Fold this sequence. Notes:
A 7-stranded mixed beta sheet has the order 2-8-7-6-5-3-4, with helices on both faces. Strands 9-10-12 form a 3-stranded antiparallel beta sheet. It has 2 domains: 13-248, Type I PLP-dependent aspartate aminotransferase-like (Major domain) (Aspartate Aminotransferase, domain 2, 3-Layer(aba) Sandwich), CATH 3.40.640.10; 253-447, Alpha-Beta Complex (Aspartate Aminotransferase, domain 1). It has 13 helices and 12 strands. The relative contact order is 0.15. α1 packs antiparallel against α7 (231-248) and α8 runs parallel beside α13. It is an alpha/beta fold.
Amino acid sequence: xxxxxxNASSPLCAAARQAWLEAEERFPGNPSSLHRVGSRAxxxxxxxxxxxxxxxxxxxxxxxxxxGATEANNSVVSHFARVSSGEAWISAVEHPSVLEAVQDSxxxxxxxxxxxxxxxxxxxxxxxxxxxxxxAFVGVMAVNNETGxxxxxxxxxxxxxxxxxxxxxDAVQALGKDPSVSGGLPDYMVGCAHKFGGPKGVGFLxxxxxxxxxxxxxxQEEGRRAGTxxxxxxxxxxxxxxxxxxRVRGAGFVHERVCWRNGFEARLMAALPGVRVVGAGWGxxxxxxxxxxxxxxxxxxxxxxxxxxxxxxxxxxxxxxxGGTGCRxxxxxxxxxxxxxxxxxxxxxxxxxxxGVEASRVWNTSLVILPEVDCRQRWVVKLxxxxxxxxxxSACATGKEQVSHVLTSMGxxxxxxxxxxxxxxxxEHEAQDWKDLADVFLVAARQLGVL
Length: 451
């Protein structure tokens, strides 16, 4: 199975697995206990806190360990609802764990910050409203979990700081992917281990000393979050974050993966009618004409077909897709019958088509609107049967066949939004994985009767 659903959950990386196993053996005690076994666990816990703080460029005393992003996001919202009678201003594309918490705790006193067609928050809206009054807090995520669009959270943070307003950032999809997330962090920021190769059930919240979470019944985390800390999970989280941040800061890591992802999108747009890439300017117009960096009317080969078999060997319909065009590499130089993709205008591959809106995206995410079939779940199920795991958007909303609030906030019609499928790669994926993925998408299209 080719796993392309890392935005939902990334498998445990080798570094995290090793750290977790060692911690289970060496630190079995409760870190709050006074005996030596407990003390050793406590020392290890604080060591991990210091390491994570060093990676993020913040004070270790500001980090609160918890069960994950849903708890952390709810805790921040609950905190502000208790200490302030003001409004909550959050982006219209926030994760449900922020949006629904605000709807509950700030019922009748919240506003959604609009986004443009590319999915980016309108910083001007925040600036204009702050001239008229101050909310309890402003919340803007770092990277959207569905589109991969990098939000201007640093700009919003600066505007809020200048006005003396608390700023909160859900950085779950940025940590380990965006190398710039370090230093100068907001007062409130959330991270979650299993989104960057750590274990499930552990995360952290960066918060000031006056913060107190929702849980009661213990003095852990300096009284800010009750409950015995998951020592093994925290040590594994620190190992995973160290590994991922080291990778994305490596020379060429981001650029290469932007090219591979964009090559996948270019093949789908050239081969399938009506495909659109959400959040990338080059995919925000119909028909795919005039793509920046992609020759008009070129053919795209299907890799792995014919001699040698490959990923499509034995899959019904694969041979029909080959079309005699042969195999072509993503990122090939421009020329007769070749494709030149991946010209990178920003660190995350934002492209501007003639009718599109440029937006930067993290290197691993592609949200594509596919040709219409009975429902988008048919695409996911068909791809699953062909050995590829993708999703319809936010994993927290999976199982509900409802239209994404992210896409409707971006101005997409419900009929368009209902055809969106999200692909999200991991740190270990290579160029061939993206090529194979494109091949399988085209086979699925053939079997679904849209090609």
